[in-house]
Hints:
The complex is a heterodimer. By secondary structure, chain A is mainly alpha-helical. In chain A, 73% of the residues lie in helices and 3% in strands.
Amino acid sequence: xxxxxIEVPEDPADxxxxxxxxxxxxxxxxxxxxxxxxxxxxxxAQIAEALGVTRQAVHKKHARRVETARD
Amino acid sequence: xxxxxxxxxxxxxxxAVSEAKAxxxxxxxxxxxxxxxxxxxxxxxxxxxxxxxxxxLVEEERRSLSAVGLSAENHQQHQSASREPRFGASAKLAxxxxxxxxxxxxxRRFRPRDLLAGVLAAEHGRVPLALDxxxxxxxxxxxxx
Lengths: 71, 145
């Protein structure tokens, strides 16, 4: 992944499609990061604080997957 | 909402959930419905190719990211998705549109082709972008449903 510079496309269709792609990318990075943190012994509260969201939000979103992966 | 769905339409929704999970996304979106519809036996005559559409979606993502200066060469995906994915906005819209079109047609049952009509009704988003990249003429496809 190479970041040249952040530019906003002139065509709103392209700009909006880019936002969607970035959200999906962020979602995937978040999934991997949370799994890594849990396996390194972070608590849900610590992960939530690092992400800047509530503990409930991060737990609801990731707990099932992370716990399934550990079984 | 699902009670009027034919067996085939239910199977499509089920496959779409699997597509969303396999993509690592946390929600089922219209593009997952499209991929699922491409493998529906009832729509075989339309000649939709799931692999071709999946490649077009990858290409759409690559282009969209590069439009903001990101290049994702070794686009390494996907751990399997978090929790059971929920239906996202684009999939809900496709379902609503499909149901509405089926009602206008006077159909009592909701079939895979009704769902496809709902998916193809989108003017914006990943589905029309991917169809365009795949070289599919949406108007022509709609006329054949």
